[in-house]
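Thread amino acids onto this structure.
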């Protein structure tokens, strides 16, 4: 009885599932446009995983059971993201019902000048993300309010979402509370605060350019397109529908303090959701009475639970307000969960068959200088975000791939950790089927490809990183 001896995949074999996936995803975008992430892309990822598995079993002679186990085990990496996604869906629904989101929109519209709204959005999200260390928490709280304000002011949602993404990721990168900011230097063997300080050379110019870009867009594009009558109508309707009071802001403040105190994002957001149900009864008595035929404890419980899983449904008759406030609920996140699961199966199968490793070896052979080393590291981070669909895998794998190469060039570990963050971290939100891209698109209600051209910080950072390395600037060496 002959024993099958597994073979290592060649680069050509490893690229077959990738080329198929890219082709099918491109075709889906062409055919289905923004709806491609609502089913077509999930099917593409699953079929690509199947092709990878078939090549592993029939061509590489690998054991199917082992491949299947490794592929499904990879789903465990995404489970924290899945649970956060579901909790944020519930949080959004109940925060609309209790008036927190409407209050954010109401005061935001009154206080923010439309011509500087985009740069102000960038600054607000940078500060909140820096304080909390979480781009996900930022977009799930102030982000959804800023999207609502932008829609009311008549600013294209892709621009607003781009400013939110840029600010959230800058703050996340520069925060010592961020998980990715801790992961990258830990993987590279660098000191956390040396890593943060070193990132200023790339993140600093990127955020400054982004700020002036949004300022220019606001001055020359948005300023003359504001419908003041629509703004006034929206403010009046919000004020008459909800009990708008500054006291509502104590709830997001509680959540931000918990995250700042290093309480993990999931329990902090869950606590914000639970406390939010109490705020419903405290602040929105008239609203919940109007939503129930007969007020009773049973009816109140039913309303709150339904909002948690279905979201809030606004029926004011004003199209703008109804679009702003009809969102949230765990159910609204299920499509994104589906996308994440399919993406992780594909990434897990590619890793299990050794195809990701084969591609990594081929990339390392092309490195011939400092500029090409950094370019290869950046390219690998982006490539891994496209194929594994998870920024944590991208950070760890790209860091491991190039650690020895950076050591051979006599570079300090903080150079590697910075380059990894400049690629694997910031580009994850630009990939529709990546966990980050799927999350941001779901929370904001804006397709990834719609905000991608305006995510200036995320687009500029990898480019600046390569330029500095090619010029041999800020690349610090180990002292002999």
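Threaded sequence (480 positions):
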């Amino acid at each position: 009885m002959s024993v099958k001896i597994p073979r290592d995949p060649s680069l050509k074999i490893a690229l077959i599932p990738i080329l198929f996936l890219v082709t099918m995803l491109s075709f889906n975008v062409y055919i289905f446009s923004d709806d491609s992430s609502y089913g077509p892309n999930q099917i593409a990822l699953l079929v690509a995983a199947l092709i990878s598995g078939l090549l592993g079993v029939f061509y590489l002679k690998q054991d199917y059971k082992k491949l299947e186990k490794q592929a499904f085990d990879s789903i465990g990496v995404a489970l924290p993201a899945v649970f956060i996604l579901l909790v944020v869906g519930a949080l959004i629904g109940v925060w609309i019902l209790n008036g927190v989101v409407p209050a954010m929109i109401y005061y935001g519209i009154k206080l923010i000048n439309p011509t500087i709204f985009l740069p102000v959005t960038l600054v607000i999200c940078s500060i909140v993300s820096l304080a909390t260390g979480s781009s996900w928490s930022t977009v799930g709280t102030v982000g959804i309010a800023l999207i609502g304000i932008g829609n009311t002011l008549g600013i294209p949602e892709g621009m607003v979402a781009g400013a939110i993404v840029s600010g959230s990721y800058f703050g996340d990168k520069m925060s010592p509370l961020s998980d990715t900011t801790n992961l990258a230097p830990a993987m590279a063997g660098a000191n956390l605060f040396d890593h943060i300080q070193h990132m200023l050379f790339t993140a600093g110019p990127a955020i400054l350019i982004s700020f002036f870009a949004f300022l220019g867009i606001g001055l020359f594009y948005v300023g003359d397109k504001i419908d003041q009558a629509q703004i006034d109508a929206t403010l009046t309707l919000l004020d008459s529908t909800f009990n708008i009071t500054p006291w509502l802001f104590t709830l997001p403040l509680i959540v931000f303090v918990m995250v700042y105190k290093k309480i993990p994002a999931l329990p902090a957001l869950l606590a914000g959701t639970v406390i939010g149900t109490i705020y419903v009864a405290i602040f929105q008595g008239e609203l919940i009475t109007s939503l129930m035929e007969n007020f009773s404890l049973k009816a109140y419980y039913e309303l709150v639970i339904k909002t948690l899983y279905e979201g809030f449904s606004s029926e004011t008759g004003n199209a703008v307000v109804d679009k702003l406030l009809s969102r949230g609920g765990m159910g609204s996140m299920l499509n994104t969960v589906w996308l994440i699961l399919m993406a992780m199966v594909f990434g897990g199968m590619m890793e299990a068959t050794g195809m990701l490793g084969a591609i990594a070896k081929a990339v390392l052979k092309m490195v011939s200088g400092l500029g090409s080393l950094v370019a290869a590291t950046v390219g690998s981070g982006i490539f891994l975000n496209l194929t594994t669909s998870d920024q944590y895998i991208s950070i760890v794998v790209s860091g491991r791939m190039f650690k020895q190469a950076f050591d051979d060039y006599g570079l300090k570990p903080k150079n590697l950790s910075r380059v990894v963050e400049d690629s694997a971290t910031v580009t994850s939100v630009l990939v529709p089927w990546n966990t980050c891209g799927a999350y941001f698109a779901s929370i904001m209600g804006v397709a990834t490809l719609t905000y991608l051209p305006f995510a200036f910080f995320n687009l500029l950072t990898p480019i600046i990183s390569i330029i500095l390395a090619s010029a041999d600037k800020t690349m610090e060496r180990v002292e002999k």
